Amino acid sequence: MKNKKQNKKKKKKETLEDKLKYEIAEELGLMDKIDQVGWGGLTAKESGRIGGLITVRKRDMKKKDKD
Fold this sequence. Notes:
Blueprint: H1 4-7, H2 16-27, H3 31-37, H4 44-66
Helix pairs in contact: 2-4
């Protein structure tokens, strides 16, 4: 018998990366594709572009905090 806790998915808190990921995907016009096929349906190029832009934005945020 499986424990009931094993069947329940933990609700993940939305992180800064999650917020940036959705924001950038929207800006790149990928949300329709994501809605249809999910995040796993993105090409490596599309995923890499999102990841790269997240990195740039996080770096810019840290730079602003230091100033």
